[in-house]
Amino acid sequence: MKKTREEKILTFLFILPSVILIAVFVYGFIAWTGWVSLTNWKDVIPDFTFVGFKNYIDLFNNLRFQISFKNILVFTALFLVASIAIGLLLAILLDRKVRFENVFRSIYLFPMAISFIVTGVVWRWMLNPGTTITGSLGINMLLDKIGLGFLKSGWYTDPNVGIKAVVIPAVWQMSGYVVAMYLAGIRGIPQELSEAAQVDGASNWQVYRYIILPLLQPITLGAVIILTHISLKIFDLVVAMTGAGAGFSCDVPALFMYDTTFRGNFFAQGAAIATILLIFVAILIIPYLWSGLRGGN
Amino acid sequence: MKRFKGLLLVLSALLVLSLGTVVFAQEKGKIEIFSWWTAGGEAEGLQALFDIYSKLYPDVEIINATVAGGAGANAKAVLKTRMLGGDPPDTFQVHAGKELIDTWVKTGFMEPLTELFQSEGWIDVMPSGILDIVSYEGDYWSVPVNIHRANVLWYNKQIFADNGLTAPQTFDEFFEIADKLQGQGIIPFVIGTKDGWEAGHIFETVLIAKLGAEGYNGLWTGATKWSDPKVTEALETFKKIMTYINPDHSAFTWDEAYEYIIDGKGAMSIMGDWVAGYFFSKEYTDFGWAPVPETAGVFDALSDSFGLPKGCQNRDNVINFLKVLGSKEGQEAFNLKKGSIPARTDINKDLFGDYQKSVMADWEKDVIVPSVMHGAAAAEGWVTEYKDVIALFVARPDVEVTQKALVQVAERAGIPQQ
Prior knowledge:
Chain A is an all-alpha fold. In chain A, 71% of the residues lie in helices and 1% in strands. In chain A, strands 1-2 form a two-stranded antiparallel ribbon. Chain A is flat, with a radius of gyration of 24 Å. By secondary structure, chain B is α/β, with parallel strands linked by helices. Chain A binds chain B through residues 42-45, 63-64, 124, 128-134, 154, 156-157, 159, 242-249, 258-266, and chain B through 73, 76-77, 80-81, 83-84, 103-104, 107-109, 185-187, 193-196, 246-251, 260, 265, 380-381, 383-385, 388, 391-392, 394-396, 405.
């Protein structure tokens, strides 16, 4: 069916406001941030002298940035693997026709409804290790009580654990979401496929290994994209739970960006961090969008 | 009779005039007051100011715009976006000194208050030490509401009495005491580092101890180099202090950590005298204080002040609020709660507790140096980077690397180190 000229103009007019708004407030500001990151702006009064990539070079020589950058990579890797593994496992178990499935589903999904700030505050208390004087607190106390005292840790107060302790609440919060995604995916696979395999004598394990898992690949890709972009931008959870932590062991680039921009007045440096984060997210998202667009055609 | 009539006329004229002024004083509208005073004593101090203001101007609605976070960690970020976005609060809390001058005055965001200082007579009742740090190019730019001392050693009196100890005068004595207390399962030195600035605060007082007032002042002007062996000594001392602290320090802000002292589980700490206000609000009175070891005779000062940003919505109401801030009554009411001392020297000292009386006495006779962690000594960019270097030092106590980093930070701030 061909659209008339009038219809085409009308369609265009309908999407025009959102196109303009997004062009200005998303892409316009991205371009502006990119430009600021190449200037010498380090006071409350802007200074738009062009300095090339000086801010980026300084940044990679900055000890705090090096630490926070390493932290975010560790955080993202652990968060992804744990969320997807737990999410997939729980989805498969739920798919085994358990009783009260909807109750479990709600329980798993519920943490997602809470803001990261609340999660952060609660887990700050739960993972507070306590001292020799107060005795063990929170999770450590629990471990003591059930005889697993050897698992006790300083959690986020220990510079050697640091950001890895923040992974725990992040996984707690987001793995339910992965469960929901996978469960929908599994339910979307035609029953005939696994039934046919079972008729051919495939075991349960083989059905999952050779039929279900390969067919879940697009879901996994989607989960990876969504979790990674949440993870790279993580800010609120860290602020509420740990702050920059002992020796910046919990620091992340977004937190450093906030600190250097709004406390130190190093606006250009802050813009450089924002741009680096954007590039990393883009590296992930753009191939996904591209494959999506091609698939759509 | 004629004279009597004349007198009557004058009296009635005066009466009408005074009525007139009462009517004129009935300002209306709103005033938005921006600060980071949300914890115990400081929030009460602010409320005391509001109470006075509301009594004078009952029709003005006060909007108490506070953003939580010690030393203004979060408030300053919010303030900055509002100022740069052209939506300044009517008046805001700012540390007197470089933070006020370098961030807001030199950049042209503030209105001068010199006329107000003259008409209210503040020039005569505030000491030059404080007037100097709120002035730039011959004008005054903010009204100081209090003076805080940063180099105070706080201790639990009960613990000290039980062990027959007295406040340490030198760091050698300090470490002796710390060893003794540690042997008894008491945390010798309490600290919370969650907000990131607390370690920088303690280190600044150790710098004063090791470099003296003049040497410390020189760090911010270039007269003392950061590569100085005395800075090394300060780092070594600070490193040793950090071996006596509560291991869960990164989970707490300073006030959360001070529960250890209140509960008698921790013995000593170094912090500014907002601690006194915090202790008052917790109804804990059994605390002792002394200057940080080796800093007796030096007053590491900071001051909270309020200014008048250009383009604020309710200029007249702000001027009235600033008048309350600078008034005797306002300064007394605020500082009684906050635990600091008034910037005015003509207040009634008898109103204040023992702690504040001792600070007032020191303020008049000590050598005054500006605090760096609280915005008086250096521009904000330098302070932020200094803070980061010291926060990292707590976890990675490498003296040589840290000193090099401090040298670089000073160079970036435009103070040559060669």
